[in-house]
């Protein structure tokens, strides 16, 4: 135990420094608000399409949200996702070190900024996609929670009375959970909608438990039916192109969400009867598979729809008779001799960055153009 004091110092010192830093950060924020009164300012959006009269001093992401303009932010404004990009046409200072890792060289040259990292201290002109004007904040109620696997929950949210949402298959929403445990502030994360656009009074999400994830842990351990939940939607541009090309769809885990919405919509419109679809879904074991009965029924009912589930590590008790191996291996084998490659092909992918990169490599190998590969990447 002779080294105990040294060990204690080694443990305590970083904690003390972290605590001091947090206190200093809070003091700086408070001082900035008191000393630097930026007054009444104007944000000009898209050359006068919208003009917001605002109070200066807060981050742009927060300021826009308070005025009903919601810029996507998968991390809830913590500067760790790089999603909340806006083009700033005014001088708001140089790019910050916290922004640069998330910006391409061309974006930096065009003065694209992370709206969560810059404060509004003067009148400012910005450009954003006009689709963001349609994003709304809903105070929904959890109508249903279902366990679809051991680590994925289906969450069905009823929108407030008199409120409707208009969105496209493949888009996503940001759900917000309240403070809990050691989490001191509301936290938002992005999830694809798994409900079809025809259901304008509800939104459905598939939430997979990520160890240590603030929002996923809350959903899996605390969320109850009848509880209120804030949802901001719709965001995103992932979706089916109206070309008639054969759709090569690949997903794993909660990447099922946009495809559930897409296939439901195709059933409703009748497109599933004429447009060829190959849906590859990869899982580790059968316990990680879900919606099998529904998807197999679609495969049997519609000649143009093909469902290909595969297990990478099937267990003896799974009694699995379907394809085995990584989903990329199965995809490659089907592209080799089962899918008609003389017809135009489009790729639709949803899953982890690693899975998507591997799938894109396979598709490129079979001469599928990257311009015809669309994806929704989960970090």
Task: Write up what this structure looks like.
The protein has 379 residues and is an alpha/beta fold. It folds into 3 domains: 93 residues, Ubiquitin-like (UB roll) (Roll), CATH 3.10.20; 101 residues, Translation factors (Elongation Factor Tu (Ef-tu), domain 3), CATH 2.40.30; 132 residues, Rossmann fold (3-Layer(aba) Sandwich), CATH 3.40.50.80. The chain has 8 helices and 16 strands. The strands form 3 sheets. Strands 9-8-11-6-7-10 form a 6-stranded antiparallel beta sheet. Strands 2-1-5-3-4 form a 5-stranded mixed beta sheet. The relative contact order is 0.10.
Topology:
Elements: H1 4-35, E1 40-45, E2 50-55, H2 60-66, E3 85-88, H3 105-109, E4 112-114, E5 124-127, E6 136-147, E7 152-158, E8 172-177, E9 187-192, E10 202-208, H4 214-221, E11 228-235, E12 246-252, H5 256-269, E13 277-283, H6 292-301, E14 305-311, H7 327-337, E15 345-351, H8 353-365, E16 373-377
Parallel strand pairs: 1-5, 12-13, 12-15, 13-14, 15-16
Antiparallel strand pairs: 1-2, 3-4, 3-5, 6-7, 6-11, 7-10, 8-9, 8-11
């Amino acid at each position: 135990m002779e080294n105990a004091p040294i060990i204690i110092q080694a443990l305590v010192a970083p904690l003390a420094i972290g605590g001091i830093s947090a206190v200093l950060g809070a003091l700086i924020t408070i001082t900035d608000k008191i000393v630097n009164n930026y007054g009444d300012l104007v944000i000009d959006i898209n050359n006068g399409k919208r003009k917001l009269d605002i109070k200066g001093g807060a981050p742009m992401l927060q300021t826009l949200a308070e005025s009903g303009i919601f810029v996507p932010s998968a991390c809830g404004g913590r500067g760790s996702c790089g999603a909340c990009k806006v083009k700033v046409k005014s001088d708001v200072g140089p790019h910050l070190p916290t922004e640069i890792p998330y910006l391409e060289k061309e974006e930096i040259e065009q003065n694209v900024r992370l709206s969560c990292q810059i404060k509004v201290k003067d009148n400012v002109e910005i450009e954003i996609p006009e689709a963001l004007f349609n994003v709304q904040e809903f105070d929904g109620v959890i109508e249903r929670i279902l366990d679809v696997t051991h680590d994925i929950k289906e969450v069905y949210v009823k929108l407030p009375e008199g409120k409707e949402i208009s969105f496209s298959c493949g888009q996503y929403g940001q759900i917000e959970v309240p403070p809990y445990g050691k989490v001191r502030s509301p936290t938002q994360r992005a999830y694809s909608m798994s409900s079809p656009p025809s259901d304008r009074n509800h939104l459905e999400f598939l939430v997979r438990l990520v160890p240590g994830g603030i929002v996923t842990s809350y959903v899996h351990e605390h969320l109850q039916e009848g509880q209120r939940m804030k949802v901001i939607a719709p965001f995103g541009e992932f979706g089916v192109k109206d070309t008639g090309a054969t759709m090569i769809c690949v997903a794993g885990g909660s990447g099922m969400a946009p495809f559930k919405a897409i296939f439901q919509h195709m059933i409703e419109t009748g497109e599933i009867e004429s447009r060829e679809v190959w849906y590859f879904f990869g899982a580790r074991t059968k316990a990680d598979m879900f919606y099998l009965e529904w998807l197999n029924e679609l495969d049997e009912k519609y000649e143009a729809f093909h469902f290909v589930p595969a297990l990478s590590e099937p267990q003896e008790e799974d009694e699995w008779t379907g394809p085995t191996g990584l989903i990329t291996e199965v995809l490659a084998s089907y592209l080799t001799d089962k899918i008609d490659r003389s017809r135009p092909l489009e790729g639709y992918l949803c899953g982890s960055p690693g899975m998507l990169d591997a799938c894109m490599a396979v598709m490129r190998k079979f001469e599928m153009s990257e311009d015809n590969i669309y994806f929704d990447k989960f970090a």
